[in-house]
Each structure stands twice: as structure tokens, then as C-alpha cells.
Design brief:
The complex is a heterodimer of chains A (about 625) and B (about 400). Chain A has about 625 residues and is α+β, with helices and mostly antiparallel strands. Chain A contains ten helices and 32 strands. A five-stranded antiparallel β-sheet of chain A has the order 13-15-21-20-19, with no helix packed on it. Chain A has a five-stranded antiparallel β-sheet with strand order 14-22-16-17-18, with no helix packed on it. In chain A, helix 4 runs antiparallel to helix 6 and helix 6 crosses helix 7. Chain A starts with a helix and ends with a helix.
């Protein structure tokens, strides 16, 4: 009888536990990271009685947490990738919107500037047309500054995110180390029974961490989990959490990088596109830096070309044109580990060679080398760094002051510098050099039918360029220039002298004269303005293969396709992650209908067990009553 | 396969969320009328849109240039026409003056009108367009009016610069002609040669015609045919060396170095004719010469002959000027044709680019509306399904 009672009691207790667990499942149906639990029943070993084993009731083997470790590990990875793409896509779409919106993009100001130059060509003496051109130049610069401000804001947003990330990572890895300890203690004290809810918490923290940066985990025999970065830097080892720190890289350029604090100093943490950190890093290296560098190249290239064109012409005062834009001077940012005291200062020098990435200049004790910071490619560099023989790299020219030691590095962000500091130098509309510096004429009393073209300037620096030169034909086949010569004449062949070139066609007669002279002040000549108007579509960038407007549109298209591709990848990754989540929840998730059924099932079992006890009691009472007589 | 309750909720909410995102996108497209919001929506189209917008802007600039050139050339054409009208009138007047029946007073009246015409031409030559540019000064606008009268001399202060504008890709058209080319670079006489009475003639020898009979013999001169007496002449070259002699009687022709001249009347001893090359002579010199000849007419014997010989020269020179300016005018006309056809091309291109741009950029409202209706239906269906599914719970039956 006692056996039946104890069997009933064991069932009563077991189903009470089962009902408790079902209640726990129902209570946590909405808890993030919760894995449903199940009571595993075991039959008590029977009692041998009279050659038979009599059943002895039920006991609880364990309370299991239903989990699919393999799927969970995949979720860590997929979640990391999704978080990275989400951050990348979010930041990139901001840049995309910035460059696509006509109110903020550079397209309209560039177009208007070249239209205004065309307007000056149409009305070379009009102060209004000239003023419009200066205003449009200001617009181009202002729009560049607006874009730079926005891009700088994204840069500082990214920096703040990295700092925040460092705090969050430290919190999470501290939690993980603590959970490792708690789980160890809890399970030891319960003779190895799994600490289900603590393990859920730890998995949740791991999920969170994987969304911050790419991690790998190793489960130890004692149940603790060691966490490493993708490159194997330890974040959590057993009960010990490392510490991460957001700090500037070796160049004091304000950019926050994530570092692991180690006894031997800071160690940079990278996260190849995964996790928020990877997303930010991808955005910096694939979108932000190239965009700044390319936009800077467009602006600096335009400014260099416009200044050069100005110098090729004469303004309304008859003077050679002064620079339209003022380009900033550059400096190389020295690395904090530099041991020499060298300083690099430079200027923009050649539009055609301007590069599309930031780069690092390194000194090996004898020579300078340059390396692109995005691509890692070595860049062509020449010169010694002296004022007479400056370092020429990527269309920039640097002079070195002080002395550099072997191993010294300098960082150059030319694009950013151009965008931040470009300005319009010219404020006098009459200063626009619309006219070419020389003009030509043929004497009215020429007998032959020779005609002279307008002439082109070959060397703007020739001291005699503006000296009036008379080409006189001593006979139909020979001519003198200001008395020197004679030179043989061939119709249509260029005649070069004093830094200019003219072409005489037809058949001049003996004594015919042609004159090349300086363009006077107030001339309505528009040849230089015509050249200026064509600067936008001339291939002045990338070694003469790309135009300012073309480079700008392809830049916008590139940003657009990056935004789109990040978006598409994010969609795909979200689907993958969702699918994995479903697979995980198919095992771990709580289904209320199932729990309701379990509730009924265990309740009935409980009632039945109670009935067993009641029956045992009845049997007992029957026995007592029988004995009482 | 199990499904967890939260997954059921999450999936339903996710799908509704997705549909709402699509819906808000369509709503934004319909509100803005644009198919593409950022380059990211369609990078390939965005790059084409930028290129098309650049092309549109180029076409619009070229169109403005062509318009402006057309206006300027129109003004130029008008002015050249006016100059020729004035030249025609002067020609009529001097033909009238040469009738041999007018006395010096009447010739004075004619001269007065000739002078008016000269003034008119001078004014046209210094004309400015609506923007203040001198039409005929080349590019040296700062030098002021290009033609400056000093006594009967008119000098040119401009240069020979052209002002070109791009009216079609790579096609440049000059919208001006330097005054030197209009008024100055005009050959005189018969261009290759000309015959002019030497100053100081007193007889009645009148040049009737001159032609180049043998171009091979003519070397450009100059030669002087001097009558030693009314019936004999000698020909000397520039260095006064005797080249030939001959005898003359009225109506005879005299041949010198391939130039054949016929004369009427009788020379006095010492009267001479000069032969030389018809070097360029500006139109003002031509007109001043004839005005001076009209002024000099004084009813004295020989006065009519002097006038006749001057008129002979003036008619040659005025015809040269007239032809020359007509040539210039024809050049302006062909430039106007080019600009006009460029303008036609531009409006065609403009339309073409605009329609392409619209195809890339603008929303197809019909398609968008039907897509929106579809999305709305899908969202409503998802919502209805969610409500039905969530209404089902075993707990509902455990009471």
C-alpha cells in the first residue's frame, strides 16, 4: 500500500514540476532569447518483490532546454552579417540621398558654372555675365562645402558610433564573463543540472555581441564559452573579460578605431563587414573615403584647370588672368610613431594626375614611397622633396622640411582638404580672362590672298609674347619676322615665334605684311572664355581620360549602386537570418497551443496521480476498518 | 515542423511591415511624380539621367548662342544692306552728274547729297548693337568708334578680331565682321590693274574704256602715259625709264603692257594717264574722291572732262565696293542659315532628350496606381488573415 502511495506522490510531484515548467514556458512566451523547457520523466527503478519487479513511480530526469546549437551558431554569423549590412546600407543611403537630391548635389552648380562661362563667351564685355560666372564659381565652392559638411557629419556620426560600440562591447563581454562564472557555480551546486535560464541569458548576450562585431566562440568542457574576434583576439576567456577602447589611429585625424587593450598596448580590431563595427568600417573604406577623395578630385581638378585657363588669357585690363580659385596648401599628417621631425607641405599641381584615394607617404631612410590607404596599392612617386625637386605623387607636389627618419609615415587626405578649404579667389568680374593674349591682322594693302589665322599661344611665359611682331614677305616663298630671317614659307604650315603660333594660308605676295600683337585692354575677344566653357567636358582628369562632369556623374552612379547593392544584400541577409530564426524557434520557441495541451495533459495526469493517492487511502481505510472489529 | 507562437506573430507583423514599406514608396512616387528618388533606386538610370541633363543643358547653351548669333548676324545683314543702298544711291547720283549737262551749282546739289550718303555710311560703320558692341570694330571695343573722320580721311581704329560662338557641338560661327574687312579690304579699279588720270591734266582726253587684253604682258606697273603733244605720247615706268612711244588721234586705243585703253577727246601736252595695280582702297577714300571731284567742277573748259574721268574711276571703285560688301553679306547670310539649321536641330534634340529623360525619371501613373491598389489589397488580406489566425487559441476552448 505504501508503495502505491509513494508512487502516487512521485507522480504528483513530477506533474507538479511539469505544470510549473509549462507555466514557465507560457510566462516566457514573449521573452527574447528564451528557449522552451521540457521535463524529462524517468521511471523509478522497480522493487523486487516475490520474484517480480513492482513499478515504483516516476521521477524527473532533468528539465531540458530545447536548443539547436548548430542553428544558433549560424544565427550568430548571419546576425552579424545582417547588422553590418544594415549599418552600411543606412549610412550609404544617406550619402546617396545627399548626392541625388538636386538641392544638395553638385550637378546643378557645375552645369551652371560652365553655362555662365559660355555666357561670358557670348557677351565678353558684359559685367553682368562676368559677375554671374563669379557667382556660379562661388556656388560650386559653397555646394562642395555643404556636401563636405554633410560627409563630415557622417564621419563624426560613425566616430560616435564606434565610441558607443566600445562601451556596449565592454558591457556585453563583462556580462558574458560573469555569466560564465554564474553558470559554472549554478551547475556545480545542482550536480550538473543545466542552468537553463542563465544559459539563455548567455546566448542572448552572444547574439547581441555578434551584432556588434564578428566573433567566434569555443565552448569549454566546464560549460563556459570563450569568445574571440574573427581574427582570434580574445574578448572573453573563461571568467576573464578583455577590455576594448575606441581611440584614434596613429594619425591624429579624429577617426575613432576600435582597439583591444593588451599588456603590450592597443591592438586594432577589424571586423570584415560583419557586425555594426564591420558595417561602419565598410562604409568608411568603400563609400565615405572614396566619395570624399573623388569629389575632392573633381573640385581640385576643376579649380586647377580653371586657374590654368585663366593664366592662358587676358582680362579686361589686358593683364594675364589671375587665379579664379584659391586651392589650399596641403600637409602630411605625421604618424604618432614618427621619430624624425620632418614636416610635409604640398600643393595641388596637376589635375590630370589627381588620385582617388587617401594615401600614406613612407620614408625608408633613402627613398619615399606612397601607398593608397583604400586599395593598398603602391603609387607612383618621384622627386626628392626639395623645393627644386619636390615629391610628385597623385598630382600633388610636396616639399619636406626637417629630417625624416627611416620608418616615418605621413598621411595625406588631399580630397578632404580640397573640399574643406577651396575658395574663389577672384572678386573682380573684369578679372575674368575671356580674351586670348594675342591677336593677328593682315595689312589692308596686301596684294596677295594670304590669310592669317587668329593664332594660338604655345608658351605663355615667353618674354616676347606680347611684343608686336610683323611678318613680312620678302618674296612669295620667304618671310622675315621683325626683320630676322628670312624663313621659308609653306602655305598652311605653322609659324612659331615669341611663344605663339600662327598659320598663314593662301599665296602672299612680295611685301605683304601680317602682324601679331598683344590683345589690348577692353577687348571683346572671347577665345579664352570659349575654352573655359569647355573645361567641364574636356578630359582633364585621370590622365586625360575623364571630364569633370563625367567623373561627377559616374561618382553619383557609383554611390547609387553601392546603396542599392547594400540594400539588396541586406534584404537577402534578412531573409537568411529570418529563416534561421524560424528554424531555431521551431525547436526552441514556445507554442501556446502546445503548452495549453500540455497544461491539460499534465493537469489530468496530476488529477490521476491524486486519484492514485485517494485510492491508496481508500485501500488503507478499508484495511483499518476491517482490522477495527 | 513546429511553429512557435512568437514566430507566428513576428511573421505576420513582418509581412505587414514589408507591405507598408512598399505602399509608402508608391505613395511617395505618386506624390512626387518621380519614379526615381535617389540614384540607389536605379543607378544605371540615374547615371543616364545625369548625362541627359548635361546634354539638355549643353543644347540649351548652344541654343542660346545660336539665338544670339542669329540676332547679331541679322543686325549685321541689315547694316550691310543699308550701306549698299547708300552706295547704289551715290552711284545713281554720279551717273546723273556725268551727263555733261549740269552746271556747277547743280553739281553742288548732287555733291551735297553725296556727302549726306557718306555721313550715313560712316554712321552705319560706327553702329553699336543693343549690348553696346560696335558692329565693325573687331574686338578692340575699348578703342571707341572704329571709324574716325579726320578731314576727308577716315581711319580705322579697330582690329581684325572675330567673336565666335559655339552654335552646335564643335561648330563655331563668328557673329561679327571686322570693319577693315567690310570697308577697307576693297580692291580698286579692275583689281589687277587700273587706269587713272594724273593730276593736273587740262585737255579733253577722256578715258572711255580699259581692259586687260593680254594678261601675260601685264606686270602690275606702275606706268605713266604722258602726252608730249596732242598727238604723241611716251610710256615710262616707275623709274621714269622710257618703255615705249606712240602717236594718238582721238578715238584711238593705246596699248601699254597688255592693257588696252580707248580714249576720246584731245590731250594737251603734259597730260598723263597712270596705270597701276588696283590696290585695296577703302570705301571712304573712294567716296571722298568723287565728292572732291564734284566739288572741283567749276564750269571751266576741261572741267567736264576731269569730272568724267573721276566718275569713270568712282564707278569702278563703287562697283568693287558694292560687290565686296555683297560678298560679305552673302557670307553673313550663309552663317545665318547655319545658325537657323542649328536652332532646328536643337529643338529636335531638346525634345528627344526631354522625352528620354521623362521616360527614365517620371512615374507611369497608371502602372503606379494599379500597383498601389494591388499593395493595398495585399495589406488588407494580410491584416485579415492575422486577425483570424490570432483569434485561434486553444486557451479559448479551455473554459
Amino acid at each position: 500500500m505504501a508503495d502505491m502511495l509513494s508512487t502516487g506522490v512521485s507522480a504528483l510531484l513530477a506533474y507538479k514540476r511539469a505544470l510549473d515548467t509549462t507555466g514557465h514556458n507560457i510566462a516566457n512566451v514573449n521573452t527574447e532569447g528564451y528557449s522552451r523547457q521540457r521535463v524529462e520523466f524517468g521511471t523509478n527503478v522497480g522493487q523486487q518483490l516475490g520474484g517480480h519487479y513492482i513499478g515504483n513511480g516516476v521521477h524527473i530526469n532533468s528539465i531540458e532546454r530545447l536548443q539547436e546549437r548548430f542553428v544558433f551558431d549560424q544565427i550568430l554569423e548571419a546576425g552579424a552579417r545582417q547588422a553590418g549590412l544594415q549599418r552600411m546600407s543606412g549610412l550609404t543611403s544617406q550619402v546617396d540621398r545627399l548626392f541625388s537630391d538636386t538641392a544638395t548635389s553638385m550637378s546643378a552648380p557645375l552645369r551652371d558654372f560652365f553655362s555662365a562661362a559660355d555666357g561670358v563667351a557670348a557677351e565678353p564685355l558684359s559685367t553682368a555675365a562676368r559677375q554671374v560666372m563669379l557667382d556660379q564659381a562661388e556656388d560650386v565652392v559653397a555646394r562642395g562645402r555643404l556636401l563636405t559638411d554633410q560627409l563630415n557629419q557622417l564621419e563624426s556620426e560613425a566616430n560616435q558610433q564606434v565610441s558607443q560600440l566600445a562601451n556596449d562591447i565592454n558591457d556585453v563581454i563583462t556580462d558574458l564573463a560573469r555569466l560564465n562564472r554564474d553558470i559554472g557555480l549554478a551547475e556545480a551546486s545542482a550536480a550538473g543540472a543545466p542552468a537553463n535560464d542563465l544559459r539563455d541569458s548567455r546566448d542572448l548576450q552572444l547574439t547581441k555581441l555578434s551584432e556588434m562585431l564578428s566573433i567566434s566562440t569555443v565552448t569549454q568542457d566546464d560549460g563556459s564559452i570563450n569568445v574571440f574576434t574573427a581574427k582570434g583576439q580574445p574578448l572573453v576567456i573563461g571568467l576573464q573579460a578583455s577590455s576594448v577602447l575606441a581611440a584614434q589611429s596613429g594619425y591624429a585625424d579624429g577617426r575613432q578605431e576600435l582597439n583591444l587593450q593588451t599588456p603590450s598596448g592597443l591592438q586594432p580590431i577589424t571586423s570584415d563587414g560583419s557586425g555594426v563595427l564591420g558595417g561602419i568600417n565598410s562604409f568608411r573604406s568603400e563609400v565615405l573615403d572614396p566619395t570624399v577623395a573623388q569629389l575632392g578630385r573633381v573640385m581640385a581638378g576643376l579649380a586647377l584647370a580653371a586657374n590654368e585657363q585663366q593664366a592662358q588669357g587676358v582680362d579686361l585690363y589686358g593683364n594675364f588672368g589671375a587665379p579664379l580659385f584659391s586651392l589650399p596648401t596641403l600637409s602630411g599628417q605625421p604618424h604618432s610613431s614618427n621619430t624624425g621631425n620632418a614636416q610635409l607641405s604640398g600643393v595641388f599641381s596637376d589635375a590630370a594626375s589627381l588620385g582617388t584615394e587617401n594615401f600614406e607617404l613612407s620614408f625608408d631612410g633613402a627613398n619615399w614611397t606612397a601607398r593608397g590607404l583604400n586599395t593598398g596599392n603602391n603609387l607612383t612617386i618621384s622627386g626628392a622633396g626639395t623645393p627644386a625637386d619636390p615629391l610628385l605623387v597623385e598630382g600633388l607636389s610636396f616639399t619636406v622640411s626637417g629630417s625624416a627618419n627611416a620608418g616615418d609615415n605621413f598621411q595625406v587626405k588631399a580630397g578632404l582638404n580640397a573640399l574643406n578649404n577651396l575658395s574663389v579667389a577672384l572678386d573682380d568680374p573684369s578679372g575674368i580672362a575671356a580674351a586670348a593674349p594675342i591677336r593677328s591682322s593682315s595689312s589692308i594693302i596686301n596684294q596677295g590672298n594670304g590669310s592669317i589665322d587668329t593664332g594660338t599661344v604655345l608658351d605663355i611665359n615667353d618674354p616676347n609674347l606680347l611684343t608686336t611682331a610683323t611678318i613680312e614677305f620678302t618674296d612669295p616663298n620667304n618671310f622675315t619676322i621683325n626683320g630676322s630671317g628670312p624663313f621659308t614659307f609653306t602655305a598652311g604650315d605653322p609659324i612659331d615665334a615669341n611663344g605663339w603660333r600662327v598659320v598663314i594660308n593662301g599665296n602672299p605676295a612680295t611685301g605683304d605684311q601680317f602682324t601679331v600683337s598683344a590683345t589690348p585692354a577692353g577687348s571683346s575677344d572671347n577665345r579664352n572664355a570659349l575654352s573655359m566653357a569647355n573645361l567641364g567636358t574636356n578630359n582633364i582628369l585621370a590622365g586625360g581620360t575623364a571630364s569633370v562632369t563625367g567623373t561627377h556623374s559616374s561618382m553619383i552612379a557609383r554611390i547609387g549602386s553601392q546603396a542599392r547593392s547594400a540594400d539588396i544584400q541586406l534584404g537577402a541577409q534578412t531573409a537568411v537570418r529570418g529563416e534561421l530564426q524560424n528554424r531555431l524557434e521551431a525547436v526552441s520557441g514556445v507554442n501556446l497551443d502546445e503548452e495549453a495541451a500540455n497544461l491539460v495533459k499534465f493537469q489530468q495526469s496530476y488529477q490521476a496521480a491524486a486519484q492514485v493517492i485517494a485510492t491508496a487511502d481508500t485501500l488503507f481505510q478499508t484495511l483499518i476498518a476491517a482490522v477495527r472489529r | 515542423m513546429r511553429i512557435s507562437t512568437s514566430a507566428l506573430f513576428r511573421q505576420a507583423v513582418d509581412s505587414m511591415n514589408q507591405q507598408q514599406i512598399s505602399l509608402s514608396r508608391i505613395q511617395e512616387q505618386i506624390a512626387t511624380g518621380l519614379r526615381i528618388r535617389t540614384a540607389g533606386d536605379d543607378p544605371a538610370a540615374a547615371s543616364r539621367i545625369l548625362n541627359l541633363e548635361q546634354s539638355l543643358s549643353d543644347v540649351s547653351n548652344l541654343g542660346d548662342n545660336a539665338d544670339l548669333s542669329f540676332q547679331r548676324l541679322g543686325l549685321l545683314d541689315n547694316s550691310l544692306g543699308e550701306i549698299n543702298n547708300n552706295l547704289m544711291r551715290v552711284r545713281e547720283l554720279i551717273v546723273q552728274a556725268n551727263s555733261g549737262t549740269l552746271d556747277s551749282t547743280q553739281l553742288g546739289h548732287i555733291n551735297a547729297e553725296v556727302k549726306q550718303r557718306i555721313d550715313a555710311i560712316l554712321q552705319i560703320s560706327n553702329r553699336q548693337d543693343g549690348e553696346g558692341y560696335y558692329l565693325f570694330t573687331g574686338n578692340d571695343q575699348a578703342a571707341g568708334p572704329p571709324f574716325v573722320q579726320n578731314g576727308s580721311n577716315v581711319s580705322y581704329t579697330g582690329d581684325q578680331g572675330l567673336r565666335q560662338l559655339e552654335i552646335a557641338p564643335g561648330q563655331f560661327v563668328a557673329s561679327n565682321i571686322p570693319g577693315s574687312e567690310v570697308f577697307q579690304r576693297i580692291p580698286s579699279g579692275a583689281e589687277v590693274f587700273r587706269v587713272r588720270e594724273a593730276a593736273g591734266a587740262t585737255g579733253s582726253l577722256q578715258l572711255n574704256s580699259a581692259r586687260l587684253a593680254d594678261a601675260g604682258l601685264w606686270d602690275g606697273g606702275p606706268y605713266t602715259v604722258t602726252f608730249t603733244d596732242p598727238s604723241n605720247y611716251e610710256v615710262r615706268d616707275a623709274s621714269l625709264a622710257l618703255v615705249g612711244t606712240g602717236s594718238y588721234s582721238p578715238g584711238d586705243s593705246i596699248d601699254v603692257q597688255g592693257v588696252s585703253m580707248t580714249f576720246g577727246g584731245t590731250p594737251n601736252a603734259g597730260d598723263a594717264m597712270r596705270l597701276d595695280r588696283g590696290i585695296n582702297q577703302d570705301v571712304f577714300t573712294t567716296l571722298a574722291n568723287i565728292s572732291a571731284a564734284l566739288q572741283a567742277a567749276d564750269d571751266s573748259p576741261g572741267s567736264n572732262t576731269r569730272l568724267a574721268n573721276s566718275v569713270y574711276a568712282a564707278l569702278e571703285d563703287i562697283d568693287q565696293a558694292f560687290d565686296h560688301i555683297n560678298d560679305q553679306r552673302a557670307g553673313v547670310g550663309s552663317r545665318m542659315n547655319s545658325t537657323e539649321s542649328a536652332l532646328d536641330t536643337h529643338s529636335a534634340l531638346n525634345l528627344y532628350y526631354q522625352s528620354n529623360l521623362s521616360k527614365l525619371k517620371d512615374l507611369d501613373y497608371a502602372a503606379a496606381s494599379s500597383e498601389m491598389a494591388q499593395q493595398l489589397t495585399a495589406l488588407q488580406a494580410a491584416q485579415a488573415a492575422f486577425v483570424r489566425v490570432q483569434g485561434l487559441s486553444l486557451f479559448n476552448f479551455l473554459q
